[in-house]
Design brief:
Mean pLDDT of chain A: 81
Mean pLDDT of chain B: 86
Helix content of chain B: 25-40%
Number of strands of chain A: 2
Strand content of chain B: 15-25%
Oligomer: heterodimer
Distance between the termini of chain A: 18 Å
Low-confidence stretches of chain B: 1-27
Helix content of chain A: over 70%
CATH architecture of the largest domain in chain A: Orthogonal Bundle
Number of helices of chain B: 23
Order of helices and strands of chain A: HHHHEEHHHHHHHHHHHH
Low-confidence stretches of chain A: none
CATH class of the largest domain in chain A: Mainly Alpha
Number of helices of chain A: 16
Strand content of chain A: under 5%
Number of strands of chain B: 22
Number of domains of chain A: 2
Shape of chain A: globular
Strand order of the largest sheet of chain B: 16-17-18-13-19-20-22-21
Largest sheet of chain B: 8 strands, mixed
Chain lengths: 340, 629
């Protein structure tokens, strides 16, 4: 088990290295960079002092060096203007647009992104699990069709529209707060119970909105897996033992159908992060999505690169979690090498 | 196989003659009587709700502490009858009429009238069932212990230490060598025989009145089959339980059942004491079934021409193959799994050489290597002689390879899986001709190809107007004929038959063997015939090589092998093949001595450490045995 874990960790590190290279080069594909664009603007307005500062930044961040060198400096395996100072050393770079270190720009929003997405995943599982099982048990009957209908509505409705609707009606009928992740009073305040409550109340709508689109496909997948498993001989054995219908379902086919369900954790994360940009914008959530969009637009290389890398790391962690859960759930994976 | 299983087997007697029923014992109150059972399915394609009778008016009585076998071929309704008793019918099936009266110590209940909750109380407690495929019938997610304990929890509300103690005791009873280890093992960690023992332990744990065994040994090797049948019989004897044995194999019936009910097309055609039915069958169908079951002796009396290693069409020397397990550790080297440890084989032109062995013996690996589907480990040599001199299979020119591919064809085991369901029979038969039309110019013409396909159909005794149909329109036996026709399309010289009849019913099996025999003499073919069943091989083979753990342990002409089998493993295989003859019960002691395929445990001078097989020793001309010289 420990060896299994170690092997997964190593693969993860390798994947992350490859991803970082891809991310960096893709971001730099469009011609120009933030500083050159800025210099052009500044030259037009003739502010010599700013131009000098911009030139300094260019050198500081090695923007005058070839791309591959920039990459290695960014990662921290090659000395830059300040010696070795890159991702590996914990220096995540400088955001040109905000004129602050990337870590300061992102700060809380990283944690908020994690919280919102985690809540959305919990929501997806909490909704899809029972509905998928019920749909499978009542396959081909009206309940199955109702669930499919509801699921497809969720899938087909544009998220931002759903967000606006929920905001409006949630406000009118339930008194839910509009927009943001907490009441403005608590911003930049130390964490208190009231602040937590405020965050929780603000989380309800984003969770539903971001989660809804994920549930439909999850329900369909779980239903299909359940249908496959429900007719396996070992379920017949369970019936022949005299096990009641509910226990028979939960102990055997559901156990098997959970495998793909769990294996999906890793895949859910990136789609949630990139998919929630629009929703975050509409709900004015301070998550990574909108920041990423801006950073990409203004060619703020290090900011965008860090966010993308962070999302990838999150995905890989999700996959690691799902791999470990799978090993816990399925003895065939755990003891695969013990067999025979 | 387990140690204790074998010691148990030596004392067991199978259903010995004295256990055969006295006529009077049937008159005692039966534990279960089924009366006039009818099961229907919706007619395919019918919109008006018509239903087909699949089981029609079946009645039988299962006497106390006896075994009743229901015998029939696929589609006879025997399995449905068993499932109906357990309430396990598929959803579309319906019991239209009939009763199943369970007499449980004076208290009688009609199983078909019980509601869900009451039926669940009966299932697993009063009637338990074991199935054909123990691997898929056990949950891969739970340990054997959990799965057996669950039954106790359901029916006796027991769990914890007391339940575990009962489980372990039961594991011991069904012959697990180490019950504690079995308790924590997952099904995929056990051998097929042990898995079926686990199923039996699960069925027996609540001491049921009736055990329903649905083809319990069909998926097992013959020697394991004998041990499992013996185990079921001992358990029946010990706990005075009745066994309803569903099987297609009259050999199993002769060895394991007191009474037999023969079913065909949903009806009972004959019933009675096993000895009476087998020795003096009344119904034509029963007679046909008995005649079709392979008999070793009858096969041996067939005239066989001489056998000599001259003009070899195929020769393999020191064939070795090691598979590397993908599941190597990160630091540990990947595991090496030797499948073949030096196999020598020669097939004279026009002759049939059979490779016989149980699962895992390496016989199918030989077939794959002979087909050039897999490359052997370096060192040995393989040669094929089309008639104008031997060619080394490792270095064929592309021209030679193409003609090799034409001349060596294979017939697979499962005619359901080996024919594409999306191609018509005509496409299946003409595809090889299309592929090789460059070498055989006459196949460039479409009409020539179709003519050839028609001729092939007639050759395998199928009506040629069925060329346009898809494989699903054919029965299993017909499909296997199509497979054979496809293999013959390019006029091969060597046919590799990989268990060509083991997926078929016995009566169909006999016909397919007939066909293969006719084709051999008619077309002058040579066969490499691979099977786990000595009785099947006896009929066709000129020479038999018995394989075990990647080596041949005994090799002789068919007559010699059966007349004087020398190796304990061969003796066990011969002894384990059940014959539909009540006077020839399985010899369990012999089976136990050679079974298990563990070379270390064979008696001297046959024993050898697993890694270094003993040499082959010629004990008579053309008869070689692996033993210390």
């Amino acid at each position: 088990m420990i060896r299994y874990f170690g092997r997964k960790l190593l693969t993860m590190a390798g994947t992350l290295a490859i991803v970082s290279a891809l991310v960096f080069f893709i971001i730099n594909l469009p011609p120009g960079d933030f500083i050159s664009n800025q210099i052009a603007t500044l030259q037009a307005s003739g502010e010599e002092g700013s131009i000098a500062k911009a030139q300094f930044l260019r050198e500081q961040y090695a923007l005058d060096k070839p791309l591959w060198q920039q990459y290695f400096i960014w990662v921290g395996v090659m000395p830059g203007a300040n010696g070795f100072s890159g991702l590996l050393q914990g220096d995540f770079g400088w955001s040109f647009e905000f004129d602050r270190p990337v870590t300061e720009v992102l700060g809380e929003s990283i944690w908020l992104t994690i919280i919102v997405n985690f809540a959305a995943i919990l929501f997806i599982y909490a909704v899809a699990l029972p509905l998928g099982v019920i749909a499978a048990v009542y396959a081909g009957r009206w309940l199955d069709y109702v669930i499919a209908f509801v699921g497809y509505i969720g899938l087909a409705t544009p998220n931002f529209l759903l967000a606006l609707l929920l905001l409006y009606y949630g406000r009118i009928y339930l008194g839910l707060p509009i927009g943001g992740l907490m009441d403005p009073v608590y911003e930049n305040q130390p964490w208190t119970w009231d602040k937590v409550q405020s965050v929780l109340a603000h989380l309800i709508i984003p969770t539903i909105v971001i989660g809804t689109s994920g549930t439909a496909s999850m329900i369909r997948r779980l239903r299909a897996n359940m249908l496959d498993e429900m007719h396996k001989p070992y379920v017949t054995t369970a019936k022949a033992k005299g096990l009641g219908p509910t226990q028979r379902l939960v102990r055997y086919p559901l156990r098997a159908a959970l495998n793909p369900f769990v294996a999906d954790i890793g895949n859910l994360l990136p789609s949630l992060i990139s998919g929630s940009v629009l929703v975050s914008a509409v709900l004015s959530l301070p998550t990574l999505g909108p920041v990423l969009l801006d950073a990409l637009r203004s060619q703020d290389t290090y900011l965008a690169g860090f966010i993308l890398l962070f999302a990838s790391a999150l995905t890989l962690v999700g996959m690691l979690i799902s791999d470990l859960l799978l090993a816990l759930l399925d003895p065939r994976i755990r003891f695969g090498d013990r067999a025979r | 196989m387990s140690t204790s299983a074998e010691t148990g087997a030596q004392t067991g007697q199978g259903v010995s003659p004295e256990a055969t029923p006295v006529q009077g014992s049937a008159s005692a109150d039966p534990v279960l009587s089924v009366r006039d059972l009818a099961i229907t399915f919706p007619s395919p394609g019918s919109r008006s709700g018509e239903r087909d009778k699949v089981v029609d008016g079946v009645s039988f009585a299962l006497p106390e502490a006896r075994t009743l076998a229901i015998v029939g071929e696929s589609g006879s309704g025997k399995s449905l009858t068993a499932k109906a008793l357990m309430g396990l019918l598929p959803e579309t099936a319906r019991i239209d009429q009939g009763q199943a009266i369970l007499n449980d110590g004076g208290e009688t209940r009609d199983l078909f009238q019980l509601d869900g909750r009451r039926m669940r109380a009966v299932r697993g407690d009063r009637i338990a069932m074991i199935f054909q495929e123990p691997m898929s019938s056990l949950s891969p997610f739970h340990t054997i212990g959990q799965q057996v304990e669950e039954v106790l929890e359901i029916h006796e509300g027991e769990s914890g230490k007391a339940a575990k103690a009962k489980c372990l005791e039961q594991f011991k009873r069904v012959g697990f060598p180490s019950p504690e280890r079995a308790y924590d093992a997952y099904p995929f960690e056990l051998s097929g025989g042990l898995r079926q023992r686990a199923m039996i332990a699960m069925a027996m744990i609540c001491r049921p009145k009736i055990l329903v065994a649905d083809e319990p040994t069909t998926a097992l090797d013959v020697s394991t089959q004998a041990l499992i049948l013996d185990l079921i019989d001992q358990l029946r004897e010990d706990s005075q339980m009745s066994v309803l044995l569903i099987t297609h194999d009259l050999g199993v019936v002769a060895n394991a059942a007191h009474y037999v009910t023969v079913m065909s097309k949903g009806r009972v055609v004959e019933a009675g004491a096993t000895a009476d039915v087998l020795s003096d069958p009344q119904h034509l169908y029963t007679k046909r079934l008995i005649a079709a079951a392979p008999h070793i002796e009858a096969s041996l009396s067939l005239e066989k021409s001489g056998f000599a290693y001259e003009d070899l069409i195929f020769e393999a020397k020191d064939l070795r193959k090691t598979y590397v397990s993908r599941k190597g550790g990160f630091w540990a080297p990947p595991q090496q799994i030797p499948a073949l440890r030096g196999v020598d084989m020669r097939i004279p032109r026009g002759k049939t050489v059979a490779l016989v062995g149980e699962s895992g013996s390496g016989k199918s690996t030989v077939a794959k290597i002979a087909m050039r589907q897999e490359a052997p480990d370096p060192g040995g040599s393989l040669s094929y002689n089309p008639g104008d001199g031997p060619q080394d299979l490792a270095n064929l020119t592309s021209e030679q390879l193409s003609s090799f591919r034409r001349q060596v064809q294979i017939v697979f085991q499962d005619p359901y899986a080996s024919l594409s369901p999306r191609m018509t029979v005509q496409d299946i038969l003409t595809e090889p001709m299309l592929i090789h039309q460059e070498e055989i110019p006459e196949f460039k013409s479409r009409s020539a190809r179709i003519d050839r396909a028609r001729a092939l159909m007639r050759k395998v005794s199928l009506p040629d107007e069925m060329l346009g149909r898809f494989p699903h329109a054919f029965s299993g036996g017909q499909r296997q004929r199509i497979s054979i026709a496809r293999a013959l399309a390019l006029e091969p010289k060597l046919l590799i038959c990989d268990e060509p009849t083991s997926a078929l019913d016995v009566s169909v099996q006999a016909q397919v063997l007939d066909l293969l025999e006719d084709l051999r003499s008619e077309l002058g073919l040579s066969y490499l015939f691979i099977s786990h069943d000595l009785a099947v091989v006896a009929r066709l083979a000129d020479e038999i090589a018995v394989m075990c753990r990647g080596v041949i342990v005994e090799q002789a002409t068919t007559e010699k092998l059966f007349a004087a089998p020398e190796h304990p493993y061969t003796q066990a295989l011969i002894a384990a093949a059940p014959e539909p003859d009540i006077d020839k019960p399985l010899d369990l002691a012999k089976i136990a001595a050679g079974a298990g395929a563990e070379p270390e445990r064979w008696p001297e001078p046959f024993a050898y450490p697993r890694e270094t097989p003993a040499p082959m020793t010629e004990i008579a001309p053309g008869h070689r045995v692996r033993k210390a010289a």
